[in-house]
Design brief:
Length: about 260
């Protein structure tokens, strides 16, 4: 890729992130966060927990919200949080609900819903690529351990822009850090260590477009070799979990 192509603005950058509410009930609020770029994508395999406990591994993605869109979008999230807190019974007292909303909206704190991208740095102390002047939202799904390895605890739909399931053998190639996507979330209050906040549970990811990768090591080998046979395609045998095809997600609308 040339230097010129790296600095070109991607067409998806013209779309502002949007929040669409699809349902609010006793479990929380179901929403779709549209037109976001993803980082730290763990969908073909779960990310490992810090303490090494496989029961704490998670399938997850991190949505990037550019700073210029954050004020508007965070206010929309706050309104949905308020709805979810009214109907969800997990935090029964008004005091708990008030604390949950305050903590969720307290940007960048440990239990806050939004993290400040500039605070997320690599081992050298540099802000991670793509997170400069941005906020992030992480959505995750727990795993269940089976004889065939980890699987999502609940149904996790991974789709293309036409709402068609991504073939199993393409998961690793299609879902990587840097793609643009819509993500379906369930927003639900929780209490942990006497701290109340809001969490995003991952329900589905719909890939919209490819873009430059945001993570991974640089190529140490130089020019490609042309004296070797083509590499075998990843066959997906170690990530063959099933998809729920019953619910078709609404088709994307045109640019606003």
């Amino acid at each position: 890729m040339s230097k010129e192509s790296k600095t070109e603005k991607h067409p998806m950058a013209d779309y502002a992130p949007e929040l669409k509410v699809t349902k609010v009930n006793e479990h929380g609020a179901s929403v779709v966060l549209k037109n976001v770029r993803l980082n730290f994508v763990y969908l073909d395999k779960p990310s490992k927990s810090i303490d090494g406990n496989p029961e704490k591994d998670k399938y997850s993605v991190t949505a990037i919200i550019p700073q210029k869109y954050f004020d508007k979008l965070s206010k929309e999230f706050e309104r949905v949080f308020q709805q979810a807190l009214k109907v969800n019974k997990r935090l029964p007292t008004a005091e708990q609900r008030v604390k949950a909303l305050k903590t969720a909206m307290d940007h960048g704190e440990h239990y806050s819903f939004f993290k400040i991208g500039n605070d997320q740095k690599d081992k050298e102390g540099n802000v991670r690529k793509g997170l400069e002047n941005a906020y992030t939202v992480q959505a995750a799904m727990a795993v269940t351990q089976t004889e065939n390895g980890p699987r999502p605890k609940f149904s996790l739909s991974l789709l293309n822009a036409a709402n068609e399931p991504i073939p199993l053998h393409d998961l690793r190639a299609e879902f990587y850090s840097g793609i643009w996507a819509d993500i379906a979330l369930t927003l639900s209050p929780y209490e942990y260590m006497k701290k109340q906040s809001i969490k995003a549970y991952l329900d589905a990811v719909r890939k919209l477009a490819d873009d430059e990768k945001l993570s991974g090591v640089s190529n140490p080998f130089g020019e490609a070799r042309d004296d070797l046979p083509s590499a075998a395609k990843f066959d997906g045998t170690d990530s063959d979990f099933s998809f729920d095809e019953e619910e078709a997600k609404p088709a994307r609308k045109g640019k606003k």
